[in-house]
Amino acid sequence: MSSDKTTVDTSKGGVPADEVLPPAVEVIDPRLLVREQGFRGYITEFKRRVKGGELGSMPVIAALIIIFVVFQLANDRFLSANNISNIGYYLAGAGMLSIGLVFVLLLGEIDLSVASVSGLAAAIFAVFTTTHGMNMWLAVLLTIVIGVAIGAIHGFFLAKIGVPAFVVTLAGFLGWNGLMLWLLRKTGSISIADTGPIHIVDQTSFFMNSSIAGAYILATVGVAAMLLSSLADQARRRKAGVPFRPTSEILLRTVLLAIVSYALAIVLNNSNGVPNALVLFLVVLVICDYVVRRTTFGRKVFAVGGSIEASSRAGISVPGIRIAVFAIAGGFAALGGLFIAGQIQTANTQAGSGNLLMLAIAAAVIGGTSLFGGRGNVWSALIGGLVIQSIQTGLDLLNMDVSIQYMITGGVLLAAVVIDSVSRRTQRTSGRA
Length: 433
Description:
This protein is an all-alpha fold. It is built from 17 helices and 2 strands. The chain has helices at 30-36, 39-51, 58-74, 81-106, 114-131, 136-161, 165-183, 196-200, 212-240, 247-269, 276-294, 296-306, 308-313, 318-344, 356-366, 380-397, 402-429, and strands at residues 189-191, 346-348. The protein is globular, with a radius of gyration of 26 Å. The chain starts with 29 loop residues before the first helix and ends with a helix. The chain crosses the membrane at residues 55-75, 87-107, 114-131, 137-158, 165-184, 204-229, 250-268, 274-292, 323-344, 356-372, 404-422.
């Protein structure tokens, strides 16, 4: 007697007829639903992010606005064209150190040697050019290569030997500072000629030779680049079927950037224009932002910072990433040292000393890069640097003692770390960490 029931050989991967699974339900990304609600949807998304601890750069931007308002009320010269130009110029040197530190912090590590490496780089460059008469551009290249090599040495001891980064870079902080003092032992300082690369980044050099068109050209390029990259990203995401920003949001962001950019251009043109040092700093930021967010290497850095074990199981060379990141930090420390040497046109025994290390670390952390690894972006170096440099400049205008500057900067740094810690705890509680 035959049966109407169809049998399936389950030993070969078949599924019995009475156990056939229902068709999969398509899951829609909630961000798509939010954006379909228009302005109300963005308010909902904003509340969700705040409750989930995803604060991003909101706290530091709010702090920056408060700083501007307070110091402008205390001294109406704070937002003057000359003062804004000085803030942009002086944040570039320490900002270069901060960019390298952002890469290190994304790994959840720390580099205490960058200030000493920057001072050593200035001394090496001065010896190459002034003492031995080397071509200045070649000296710049060799100095940066030496900085990269120093960082790679630190990374090797961390990744291959297993020495904690704190110990390795603390030893570097002392050792490289000692080497700098040894190089400058005869005179204590070496003057650097104000030509070539040094002249490009000194305080008298501005984009397009102080032409009023320079600032507007930069603003136009920046706005156009953001618009085109946003539209390209939208098209790519639309084609892949993943959430993308609607055109209305892209246009709104572009308009807001244009307002800020052209307003800043107007202010700087009332001084001498845009300092070359600031232009180069912003160019480096854009390049590094692309590397961190758009390349395989950048994704690996975030992965290692998030979980070393998971990264290893995914086939990522954790030692290789660590060595590469510390090499990047060393290279940027050397570049920052050259920027700072360009400010004073001298390499001396005080280079890399004082509070430079703390300010570089503070800028990265205050800007939003987490000390716990796996979260942040290179724009932290700019935003955090603006906060610190604004505080220093504002207090200088008020003739405040340097001790007050240290205390206020320390308080801001502590607040940034507290916000980061609370944010992470909130994310874990809400299941988003």
